[in-house]
Amino acid sequence: MASASDESLRSRIIGLLTSGLATDVYPRADSHEQVQRLVCDLRLAGDDLEAKLKLAGFTSYPIEHAGITQLCETCMYYKVHQRFCELPELNVPVEPDWSCKLWRI
Amino acid sequence: MTNLLWLQGGACSGNTMSFLNAEEPSACDLVTDFGINVLWHPSLGLELGENLKKLLNALTSGQMPLDIFVFEGTVVNAPNGTGEWNRFAGRPMKDWVTDLAKVAGYTVAIGDCATYGGIPATAPNPSESQGLQFLKRQQGGYLGTSYRSKAGLPVINIPGCPAHPDWITQIVVAVATGRGAELSLDEFQRPKTFFTSFTQTGCTRNMHFAYKVSATEYGQRKGCLFYDLGCRGPMTHSPCNRILWNRQSSKTRAGMPCMGCTEPEFPFFELAPGTVFKTQTLMGVPKDLPSGVDKAGYVKLTAAAKAASPAWAEEDIFVV
Ligand code: SF4
Ligand code: SF4
Ligand code: SF4
């Protein structure tokens, strides 16, 4: 179950994404090296939520890439019942139909 | 009595340590219960200098029978094929290997280095190391493809970094008690009894593998280590979750990924930075999928299993 603080953070993220926060959706992090670089950048961003969303290329809709739909719902870091992204460098509540460049199945 | 000689080439002694920790049967049981006469071993051998040379010469000349020749570590050929970097009892170790393998009833390679070349043979392989009958995946190695011991078997390979103590002693006992001919070996000459199932067979995280719940840090009390932390359990042949380590646990049970140490490519990706304990992906899909599974099937299965995962799978399950 999602906690009250998760819900308030989720609302904040929805607000940011729907009010036009420009995130780096492309290029996708296809190679292992790109993923590693991105994870390092996220670590440097620390607790800066907007910076993290921007770097990770968050969208509030799924992204189709290389013939596969990349959405939180199928991502390895997604906790289905808590609707939460468990990637330590993100660690934020999400929605199943969102997406980001760190998606992995 | 069955005469056993254990020599060490390019090695870290990890398999010796493993052997000395064996419990079922123990190294002592080999002597007291199974009539194995350990002629010499790097940690147990009494002879030194001239006496050791005499012993080795008695074996190579056929004056004394060598029933089981155990080799740990790589065959070192450097520099320039001479083997001078690894001298033992007055000559390059590789020359002893040549002569002893010729007279041995059975030749047994213990650990990755003796089996495939292991870590020393990783590029650029400065010690020009080879395994006894393989170099990584390629058959041949130091003794050559056609090598057969006197019993008619190729080198019996017991890989692992190190090999589990009981894999070592159980195979030695099988050979010493005349059951060597019954050993069935796989394509890498590993005893099938140990190396047909996967590391994943018996892993306590299989439920999390099935429901695609990932561990994101070492030692977590839930989650499978395949998706993020580079666990090679689904494509590594070993009984690590059937024959437990220290009779207690295994790497994956404790929350550390299997590194695939019983396979010829170990260490994978030549230890390039960022490749150890990290699942390598291409466009978000693991490069190495569970044995026998294709990419389309994997993606479909994962999406469906994830959607079906129960709430408990996301909570700590191994509660103390
Ligand atoms: S890593 Fe990205 S795609 Fe995966 S759950 Fe987190 S936010 Fe969603
Ligand atoms: S932790 Fe490794 S061995 Fe265990 S279920 Fe997951 S992939 Fe398999
Ligand atoms: S769990 Fe994997 S890395 Fe560890 S000993 Fe077994 S096969 Fe080797």
TrEMBL record, chain A:
Protein's UniProt name: Uncharacterized protein
Top-rank lineage group of the source organism: Bacteria
UniProtKB/TrEMBL annotation, chain B:
Key word Cell cycle present: no
Compartments it resides in: Cell envelope
Residue ranges constituting the NADH:ubiquinone oxidoreductase-like 20kDa subunit domain according to the UniProt record: 12-174
Domain of life from the UniProt record: Bacteria
Cofactor(s) named in the record: [4Fe-4S] cluster; [3Fe-4S] cluster
Alphabetized Pfam families for the sequence: NiFe_hyd_SSU_C, Oxidored_q6
GO cellular component: [Ni-Fe] hydrogenase complex; cell envelope; ferredoxin hydrogenase complex; membrane
Residues engaged in binding [3Fe-4S] cluster: 240, 258, 261
Residue numbers binding [4Fe-4S] cluster 2: 203, 224, 231
Recorded GO MF terms: 3 iron, 4 sulfur cluster binding; 4 iron, 4 sulfur cluster binding; electron transfer activity; ferredoxin hydrogenase activity; hydrogenase (acceptor) activity; metal ion binding
Keywords assigned by UniProt, alphabetized: 3Fe-4S, 4Fe-4S, Cell membrane, Iron, Iron-sulfur, Membrane, Metal-binding, Oxidoreductase, Signal
EC number: 1.12.99.6
UniProt xrefs under InterPro entries: Cytochrome-c3_hydrogenase_C, NADH_UbQ_OxRdtase-like_20kDa, NiFe-Hase_small_C_sf, NiFe_Hase_small_N_sf, NiFe_hydrogenase_ssu
Reactions catalysed: H2 + A = AH2
Domain Cytochrome-c3 hydrogenase C-terminal: 198-268
Binding site for [4Fe-4S] cluster 1: 12, 113, 161
GO biological process, one term: anaerobic respiration
Keyword ATP-binding annotated: no
Family: Belongs to the [NiFe]/[NiFeSe] hydrogenase small subunit family.
Record note on quaternary structure: Heterodimer of a large and a small subunit.
The name this protein goes by in its record: hydrogenase (acceptor)
